[in-house]
Structures are given as C-alpha cells and as structure tokens.
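Hey Z.,

So I finally got round to the guanosine-5'-diphosphate thing we talked about over coffee. Here's the setup:
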Amino acid sequence: MTDARDPEVAEGGANEPLVIRSLEFIGGMASLGGWRPDPDLPEIAFAGRSNVGKSSLLNRLIHRKKFARVSNTPGRTREVNFFKVNEQFVLVDLPGYGYARISKEKRAEWKPLIESYLRKSPRLRGIVQLLDARHDPTNDDRQMLDFLGDLGVPTIVVLTKVDKLRAAERKRRLIEVPTSLGLDDDQVIPFSAVTGEGRRELAEAIESLLEQPSWRAEEADAADPAVGDGSDDSAADAGPNPEAPDER
Ligand code: GDP
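And the result:
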C-alpha cells in the first residue's frame, strides 16, 4: 500500500515513488549475441549520448553510488549493463553513444549493440531517452529516437542539466527541443541531478511503465515459435513456450 497523502514529501520519504530497497549488478552484455540475463523480469533501459548526465541521473533516481561505480568502470562503459532492482525489474544502462573523442568506427559501434538489445528483449517495457537541455539533439540522438519510434517502444524523454539554464533560456529550451523532435512539451521531463528536479516525475513515469502490460506481448506471443532456434523439440502445435527451459 502506498501512502499518497502528501505529494510534496521529501526525497526518501515514505511516499516517494520507486523506492529502491535493493540493487544488484547482474552483469554486462559486451558484444552482439553475447551474454545477457534471462528476461525473467520486466526491463527499463536508459539511453543517451556520453556525458549527457546518465550516471548522475541514475544516481539521483536510485540513491546509490554503487551504480555509477559499476557502469563507469573501464571496459563496462561500452557494455549494456544490467541491474536488478528490488527483485521487481531490471534497469538496463545502455552504453553512451557519440563520444566525440573516439574514432568514427568506434562511434558507430554503439548502434548494432544497442539495436540488437532493443530488438531482442521480450520483456522490455520502455526506454528513458536522455537529451542535454542546453544543446540541440545530435544526429545520433535523432537516429536513436527514430529507431525507438520505428520499434514502437514506449519512450520517456528527459532533458538533463536544466539547472544550468537561466529562467528565460530554460523556458525557451523546454519548448524548442521537444518541438524540434515533433514532441509536445508535456512529453518531456526536465531533470536536474544537482537539484533533484524531475526525480519524482521520472520515477512515477517508470512505475507506470512497469504497471502497464508489455507493448510487446502480442508480438512476442506471435513470434515465439521461432525463439527456440535450432532445438528439435518439435512439439508442433503445443503453442508458444515463453519459458524455454533448455539451458545450453
Ligand atoms: P554520462 O556520461 O552520461 O554518464 O554523464 P555524467 O553523469 O557522468 O555527467 C557528465 C558531466 O555532467 C559531469 O561533469 C556531471 O557532473 C555533469 N552533470 C550531470 N548531470 C548534471 C546536472 O543535472 N546538472 C549539472 N549542473 N551538471 C550535471
């Protein structure tokens, strides 16, 4: 039961949405087709270009420094990192893309890994896409958003670092950025890891994604017979077997 009497209760208060009771790093997916955890819990993924403020946002959201320590370990920054939260869902930290100081080829590497994760995650419930409120979306941001749109995955757009904007500029950017992306201004969440602004709204949006039935359910049911690739358990019309218990 949640106590919703006082919506203004401070962070960490009794009725704060998405209270994190436990956080466990469960591993990283380093390459296409590489290891990933069994999709036995719903997943929420976080995406954005390097330096957009993703680690800071996640630290604010989950009140855990441990999170950033894992995700910023050398070698892990290019992986898809998975964290189990409250035995309730899996938080998926996608690699930051578009880092200016790495070569073009390396910069392009994010695409197949991120795309493959997004296509092949039957329990993905939604994406939190981060954009820096101060800058216009980059080509990489636009490609990512186009891809998410094609996929049809529910997407929460967060504008980061809003504390860096003065009032007038902030007002302008909170209209300009969504407009340039064809979004309504109430479809984006202004966020600051410094002041905590937007934490509650983001947490509530994530909770509501977790409560909704998966946007992918029908697709997964329809496509399931193909999932058991190669194994000859020709239980012809036994229907889909989402649990696929064979471990190889
Ligand atoms: P990541 O590469 O996307 O994980 O970005 P980080 O979270 O490491 O942030 C990149 C830089 O932006 C760091 O210097 C942060 O301190 C800073 N930063 C991140 N979020 C905010 C914010 O909300 N406000 C301000 N002022 N700085 C921020």
